[in-house]
């Protein structure tokens, strides 16, 4: 694979850690990193689903999707209802901070707690390296909101997202930078396959039946065979395993309408 022919941009994917639980902690004057707090659908219903939990509470076994009745009734554990208006307000404020570093067409809100920026044209205005820019942005967000974020950096959107999910979220610095040269050592080592972005358990089973059991085997497999089994999705699987992604944030940017 000649990666020299592929996009080599500075894409940063930022994820706000335990966002709902962290915002709910901050608005109560609590430190998200030192607080055991969970957000549930309805605190009055014992079977209510856990929507989010702070890091300390997760360490005790509380997971997103579990039930309220599994959470111990202790004074040091805060159980709260969601505050969607506050979450949206916090998300919008964080977006405004990040937009100081890139043009609107180089910004994409992937979800309420995750965003992408293409800093190719602007990172040199604020830092010497992409990692320094990511540190600067995360530090500003933390300083102004008391919320902790992580960032994955890559030459395209896909590699930035994968580096976020598989390294940055587990790194002491909260930042990971994957480049094309890292694909054989980092990307291809992701296991099981369903942990890779875009591969479900059902897709993994179908790949296994084709004799494909690793991301490396998927990357080196016949594209024609994959297309025969999966149709157009087969080409996408092959491209993702090789980190081929030509998509641009600016391609989906829709500017605000103006009246003249």
Automatic annotation (TrEMBL):
UniProt keywords (A-Z) are: Nucleotidyltransferase, Transferase
Occurrences of domain UmuC (ranges): 11-200
Q: What class of enzyme is it?
A: transferase
User: Which InterPro entries does the record match to this protein?
Assistant: DNA/RNA_pol_sf, DNA_polymerase-Y, IMS_HHH_1, Rev_trsase/Diguanyl_cyclase, UmuC
What is a GO molecular function of this protein? DNA-directed DNA polymerase activity
GO CC, sorted alphabetically, is: cytosol
One biological process term from GO is:
DNA repair
| Keyword Cytoplasm in annotation | no
- Pfam families, alphabetized: IMS, IMS_HHH_1
EC number, UniProt record: 2.7.7.7
Q: Does the keyword Transferase apply?
A: yes
Describe the family membership recorded for this protein in Swiss-Prot or TrEMBL: Belongs to the DNA polymerase type-Y family.
Query: PANTHER family from the xrefs?
Result: DNA REPAIR POLYMERASE UMUC / TRANSFERASE FAMILY MEMBER, DNA REPAIR PROTEIN HOMOLOG YOBH
The protein, known as = DNA polymerase IV
């Amino acid at each position: 694979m000649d990666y020299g022919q592929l996009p080599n941009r500075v894409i940063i994917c930022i994820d706000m850690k335990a966002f709902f639980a962290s915002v709910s902690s901050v608005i109560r004057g609590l430190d998200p990193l030192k607080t055991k707090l969970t957000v549930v659908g309805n605190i009055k219903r014992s079977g209510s689903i856990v929507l989010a939990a702070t890091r300390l509470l997760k360490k005790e076994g509380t997971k997103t999707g579990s039930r309220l009745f599994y959470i111990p009734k202790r004074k040091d554990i805060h159980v709260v209802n969601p505050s969607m208006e506050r979450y949206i307000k916090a998300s919008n404020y964080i977006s405004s901070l990040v937009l100081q570093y890139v043009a609107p067409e180089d910004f994409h809100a992937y979800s309420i707690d995750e965003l992408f920026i293409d800093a190719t044209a602007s990172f040199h205005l604020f830092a010497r390296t992409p990692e320094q820019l990511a540190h600067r942005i995360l530090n500003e967000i933390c300083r102004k909101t008391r919320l902790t974020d992580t960032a994955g950096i890559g030459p395209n959107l896909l590699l930035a997202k994968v580096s976020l999910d598989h390294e940055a979220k587990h790194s002491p610095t909260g930042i990971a930078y994957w480049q094309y040269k890292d694909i054989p050592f980092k990307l291809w080592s992701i296991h099981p396959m369903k942990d890779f972005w875009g591969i479900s358990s059902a897709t993994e089973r179908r790949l296994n039946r084709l004799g494909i059991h690793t991301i490396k085997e998927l990357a080196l497999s016949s594209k024609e065979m994959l297309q025969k089994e999966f149709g157009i999705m087969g080409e996408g699987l092959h491209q993702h395993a090789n980190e081929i992604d030509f998509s641009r944030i600016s391609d989906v940017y829709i500017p605000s309408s103006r009246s003249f």
